[in-house]
Prior knowledge:
By secondary structure, this protein is α/β, with parallel strands linked by helices. 37% of the residues lie in helices and 18% in strands.
Amino acid sequence: MAQNPSGIDERPKLLRPPVIKSEGRTASERYLAKLAERSFLNLWSYPNPYRDQRQGGTDKGNGKELCDLLVVCGKHVIIFSEKTVGWPGGAIETAWRRWASKAIRDSAKQTKGAERWISEFPGRLFLDPDCTDPFPIDLPPEEVRQVHRVVVANGSAKPCRKHTRSSSGSLIIRPGVKGDSHWTDRNGAPEPFVIGDVDPEGSFVHVFNEAALEIVIDELDTVTDFADYLAKKAAFVRSGDLVEAHGEENLLAYYAIRINDEGDHDFVVEEGKVPISIDCRRYDKFVIDPRYQARKFANETSYLWDNLISKFTSHLLDGTSIMPEGQDFDLRKLELGVRQLALVPRFFRRLHSEAIADALERGKHDDRFVRVIMSPTGEEASETAFFIQTMKYLDWMDTKGGYDGYRKSRSALAMIYALGLLERHSHLGRVVGISCEPPDQSRESSEDLVYVEQHEWTDQERKKIQSDCKTAGVLQNQNERPVRGQEFPEHGVIAFERLGSPPESSRLNRKQRRALKARTRKRK
């Protein structure tokens, strides 16, 4: 897959009809759509999708809105239902019942219906109310699909700040409150501004009001980071280990500084200290910690990765992607490659972006340069390898096929790299490669992406790949070095550790040392 060069005409050529998405029907839906597209990116976020609600067993019927926002990426399906309900007047208890039944109960029902429809009719999703534009990317198979239900219930933040200790206005989380006890007197009077397990017999429902939503999406601004938090939060709330948390942001702060034995963020609770309560000051303390500020600063580099993804996805959606000769455009297949880029969490985007930035700088001085990014064998991310290839367009190429010939050669080399990596590293499941000119080359510019999955190679195929690599000078005399980084850098120390220097283990406990080891990366 290639992107249209921008050197001659700044307007990319429209090669096929674009994907037309809703922007949201109300101001609050449009705001939710913008938040989601910023964090989960445009190819995987779809406001107001529809289902074809047929009538009486016939093929006739109008489309019915499935939900307010659907995010689909990899194994994750995130169903958002948003309602903005003004705070009713009267006594606070009565006002809460009225508000919660409209803002939370009705939205939870919508997400349940959407989940059921996706399970029963995954091929009957559309982008338009007439149900003529099919949902453009494939949903994950049911056996691996993880569905997350999210209710965005706006309208309670201001009274919540007034009547509780919450400085932000986000709702209190108390797992003991279940089902319709949130808004009825069936099990005693419901407590205002308290949310627990809205659908205890179904998949967990996450309830964010306007105070919590932006904080959570801003802190967890990749689909993997956000979905991992939702899954672990659901398990934690239902585990019996939590008494209450005073606001979503404080629950998030607790999660953000704890890691499990696999080196991932989790709701780790010390033995003998359960159940726990999470107070209302954790997030405020978290964001003023110098290490938090250092992480924010260090993460600025990581958005190079996001920008790279957007270059491809914008062309895919706009209908301006250029396909190699002999290949047809198929968005569902092309999404597979960029999806692997989108599934990388923020911390690793930082490490990968450092590698790419260095490769782009090296590319200014070399006619061709390649940087391969791999994880150590055994890590969850180790099945996917990435590489960036920079290749200069040289003057003599004008008489050897020009720019089109240059791009064909560049793409052919990228394919040799991808096949060579898969042949050499049997643990890999896939390789994603990006090719481009080095920065500041005063000619046309473009980006190509190659995506190849692992294969059971025959002896003849192996010999061919090895021969092609040798002829092209690919993967010969490799230099390999480990790269270490800290998600929360020490205050004032933003750079990676020096090569060969040991980690500062004297400052780390046993779990932190495990996490550091788990996050060690290999860079070639």
